[in-house]
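Much of our argument rests on the idea that a fold can be written as discrete symbols. Part of our work consisted of pairing the sequence of a single chain with a tokenised description of its backbone. The amino acid sequence and the backbone structure tokens for this protein are reproduced below.
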Amino acid sequence: MTERIRQLIDRLEQSRSLTVPEYAELVAGYSEEAAACLADKARRACSRVYGDAVFIRGLIEIGNVCRNDCLYCGIRHSNRNCARYRLSADQILSCCREGYALGFRTFVLQGGEDPSFSVEAVCALVRAIKAEFADCAVTLSLGEYPTAAYQAMFDAGADRYLLRHETADRAHYQSLHPPALSFDNRMRCLRDLKAIGFQTGCGFMVGSPGQTAQTLAKDLKFVETFRPAMCGIGPFIPHKDTPFGDQPAGSVPLTLYLLSILRLIQPNLLLPATTALGTLRSDGREQGMLAGANVVMPNLSPPDAREKYTLYNGKLHSGAESAQHLEELRQRMAAIGRRVVTDRGDAAPG
């Protein structure tokens, strides 16, 4: 590790802010020594805010029908090899009941942008979940909507909304998405969600085609200035039935490095060790925690749905990634000195 990288790490820890060129320099200056230094500081920062707690979210993949044609995504509209499904409201509530009995107090409803799943249906589902599980948080991750639709979801009782920005670089964004999707609208959605009062989550892929240290620096600066409640990052993994099917996967070590940077930027951030991380590395969740993460999202979806929600090749949905194997996850977290808690897991003030 060069003296310059050491200086940037120390300054980031102290001020929680760097310029975009400095973030680019820090990203480009990755080394195992720098990663170890950052991870140590990130673990300490996380511990000061959250102690040894690991928050669990019950992920329910409610459907893989999507109107969009994002170039990286396996459930893109034009993928004719994707076996489509939609869960009914009764199926989703059944998943919540199973999850509640297992100890989950946050349910994450994730799906493609399905034109048949109306705003009214989303709101009715949220109200039903909150009526039965009043002590639980409901998180939605259903893509882009008009402002009024987000307001209706919030008024129905949804607590959080996750919308990955994917990249904070306009040109890079357009290279990953069809013309129908715009960088400006994605940013508008995120601003609206936060202004309405949602605990708002953003996030980006690491190693997506065309990404550079400079584009990653813009992501880091965006998180610094936007100050989300949560930020989900994971390595890009190609899907065979997409235009990026022959592209290499993103780097696990760089993803861990960026997790540590994000923790220093915002110590109270809810920072998941994502499924993509666990897919590329068998101990990905543990390594994510050791880099500063504090959230995992085991899968509560019905088994046949998990097999169809194929965002990328080899997506993990069994073992400790499954909500039904929560005890295994507890043991794996305990082995690295962390404790899975039964808690809504709201973001700490800060």
Notes: The chain has 14 helices and nine strands.
